[in-house]
Amino acid sequence: MNIEFRTSRPFSKWELKPGVGEPSYSYFARLAADEQHSSVTLYANGIGLNWRNLVPAEILSTLLTLPLSDEHQKTLRQSTPVRDGNYFRVNGDRIHHRQFSYRYRRFCPHCLAEGPFHRVWWDVQAFKTCPIHGCEIEEKVDGRRLGWWWAHFDQSPRGTPILGQRDAPVILAGEHPFHEFVVGRLTVGREKDGELTGYDLGEIIEASIELGMWLPSEVRSEPTDDADIEFGFDVLSRGHAGIVDHLRQWLLQVVPEDRRRKGLYASVPKLASSWGLPSENRLMSKLYAALMEAFAAVGKLGRKRSKAVVTQRFERTLLEVSRELGLPPKGVSKFTRFLGLLPDAKWNGDALSFDQNAFEKLRHAVEDLIQLDQTFDITGIPAHEFRELEKAGFITGHFGLPINGSGSPKFPRSRIDELIRDAINKVSPRPGTRTMSLFSLAKWSGRRQGEIVCAVLCGEVTPVALDSQATGFRQLLFPIENLMQQELRLPGDRLNRVLRSYTGKNRQKET
Question: What is the pairing mode between strands 87-90 and 93-96?
């Protein structure tokens, strides 16, 4: 039979059909064995193919001259790797040539027992475990690598059986998600891969290896010798937020806080340098951005050099805090200093640095502030009377914090409540004593309500009862005899009018 005829019809019979995931070189080897040839190299050379320099695309072209059905031709096309520069394309996917090799045969013996043909996913170098049977992928027979010159799939050139059990037990789905993912990508495609749909298989493999090489260690910030690719793929599958969260927890575990305050490259120099390098892999740039965002939440990350969009930082500048709170930096600076949140700060503008704890305290303090005109509903006394307490130093008003567009002074609600409790605690009950309200006492004594409240807080005036129907300081009731006290003394004729106005009226209130 001449070469021209053998090239047009390279085999005399083709009853064998390509299996799911079978590449051209596997199907060619099986057909050669069916022709009673053990050396695929000799058979291929006999029909004009250079088998020593295996080119799957050329082998595919030769096989497509056979009268195979459209379905079988499609199977071969999908499962045959075609070189494209530094990459191989398989089933519409792309994988780097360093991640893929068909120089030697790798196999699952139990899969071969179920169907004696090669699966293209066995050529993925990161593919180490059969996701169906749970066994490791075999790479050697008789202590040697098995080349593609050998045509048979049931035994080695030395006669050693390589088939496993035909009815070997299978494992539950989900035990090896990465390996299941690879099989799915090279058979079904990428339609249902979630957030990973837009990325090539080679990109996913590299990112999974990187995550699996660094993150499994909970005690050191150095890469492990053997990457746990299943672990890495699991983290990668969680999406950006999940990756950031895992990186954040890992950084907290393996890097001391004092080192994290020195910066990213001082904390994890090898990791930051590796992930920060320019790469064709789009996922690696995503991982670097996730690393930056995670580190910003637990360490000190420089603003000028950071190209990542960071949503949360371990330390914030004054400008960032002001923007987040929606307040002017000058007002925030004064308020922060008043609260004593940054005792070690140099107070030189934007150089202020807020950690998460200081920021949360500041945020709660800002949320606690109310405007001057809101104090009446709480204290029961007019705003201008309430400011007497500010003058006396019982409470501090804060300017430069225009909450809701108002530039009026702001006061902490919690401090106001505390002052009201202090005043109520000053009550010394006197059963049977005639009493008057805070407003009446101020009116007849010619003193401000705010002044009387300050006198109560200082212990100079003592209320004797409470009005349960009133609010705030208005609850305080005072004995009429207060008008006789030195600090509230009135002229004699006016005092007599006051006393007469209360004669015969039931003004007794008890606590």
Answer: antiparallel
Cα separation, 353 vs 335, whole angstroms: 15
Cβ burial of 331 (10 Å; 0-12, 13-18, 19+) is buried
Give one DSSP letter per residue of 55-103, joined into a string: -HHHHHHHHTTS---HHHHHHHHHHS-EEETTEEEETTEEEEGGGB--S
Distance in angstroms (rounded) separating the CA atoms of residues 15 and 19: 12
Q: Which residues of the chain have pLDDT under 50?
A: 1-7, 349-350, 486-492, 494-500, 502-511
Residue type, 115: G
pLDDT tens track for 184-225: 999 988 766 678 888 999 999 999 999 999 887 666 667 777
Which helix (H) or strand (E) covers residue 411, if one does? strand 410-412
Give residue 171's pLDDT. Answer: 80
In this prediction the pTM is 0.66
Residues 6+ apart with CB under 8 A from 349: 318, 329, 333
386-to-69, 456, 477, 482 alpha-carbon distances in Å:
93, 14, 18, 22
Could you count the other beta carbons within 10 Å of the beta carbon of residue 181? Answer: 20
Residue with tokens 């059990």: 165
Burial 423-433 (b: 16+ CB within 10 A, else e): bbeebeebeeb
> CB-based burial of residue 446 (10 Å sphere; 0-12 exposed, 13-18 middle, 19+ buried)?
exposed
Half-sphere exposure of 273 (CA within 13 A, CB side): 8
Write a three-state SS string for 156-210: CCCCCECCCCCCCCCCCCCCCHHHHHHHHHHHCCCCCCHHHCCCCHHHHHHHHHH
Q: Identify the pLDDT of residue 193.
A: 65
User: What pLDDT score was predicted for residue 297?
Assistant: 82
Contact of 103 with 144, CB cutoff 8 Å:
no
How far is 182 from 126, CA to CA, in rounded Å? Answer: 10
Q: What residues form DSSP beta bridges with 508? A: 434
Q: CA geometry: angle at 118 spanning 76 and 100, to 5°? A: 85
Query: What angle (nearest 5°) sits at the alpha carbon of residue 24, between those of residues 13 and 126?
Result: 145
Distance CA 87, CA 93 (A): 10
Question: What is d(CA 288, CA 264) in angstroms, rounded to the nearest whole number?
Answer: 11
